[in-house]
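Reference record
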Amino acid sequence: MPMRISFYGLYSIVVALQNRSGVTVKREIEAQREREREREMGLLTHRVERSEIKPGDHIYTYRAIFTYSHHGIFVGGSKVVHFRPERNLKSIAETSSNLDDDDTSSPCPTFPDCGFRQPNSGVVLTCLDCFLRNGSIYCFEYGVSPSVFMAKVRGGTCTTASSDPPEAVIHRAMYLLQNGFGNYDVFQNNCEDFAMYCKTGLLIVDKQGVGRSGQASSVIGAPLAAMLSSPLKLLMPSPIGVATVTAGMYCMSRYATDIGVRSDVIKVAVEDLAVNLGWTSSNEEVPENETSNTQITR
């Protein structure tokens, strides 16, 4: 005997199938859009989830609507060691970024020692929440190929230099938390420089040039590339050609200042960092077998 389905039952089945199909299609479209966004952002940044970061990772987050990024070393236990100007460290509970002026004096609700630092030092220990300030987490990439490095349109996201083991990275970060990282300088000694030193132990010999920071290289490299490409406007009638050459110069200038390819860098033990940067008297005794005076071989 054939099964009879009422009109209402048939209508319910059709609606259910339509709704299911619509939801499936909608989810697939949203997933595709998300994959496209990830591919696009892959050329700029490396966004990760909290569950993905590991002790010893160099992480960063963006401030002021992606105007600049703030960098630090994740040391585990939802804690981050990072470097900020001393003028913005008015209290141990203050959680402002390295360029923000809005100080927050209220205690951290999750980590009693959040904001710990030594007197007259810009190296601070905070919880991950205060470091991010509701921002997303991005992981700085090490050991990337030259092609990937130059494909990253935005500086301060990766380097061709290799990272040291997590134990060495955390040791440097905690040592500098107790001993400081010198005076903060936007172009030569900033939060990205701090994190990159903790990850690699590399120090630039030429103290007058641009530091390790990819952000600083981008700030200087973009106007420089535009200036150098200006005479080409007389030779190239097409604006596209001029823009292409300018972009190429910008990428090459960033690559030339990357610590992974520079020849003026040395491996410096964190215990000898103060002497090499002139924070203490150079007459202090330094073990001869330390790596602070050893030129890196490539």
Notes: The domain at 58-211+260-295 is CATH 3.90.1720.10 (endopeptidase fold (from Nostoc punctiforme)). The helical segments are 7-42, 128-132, 146-151, 166-179, 191-200, 214-229, 239-256, 273-276. The first strand starts at residue 47 and ends at 48.
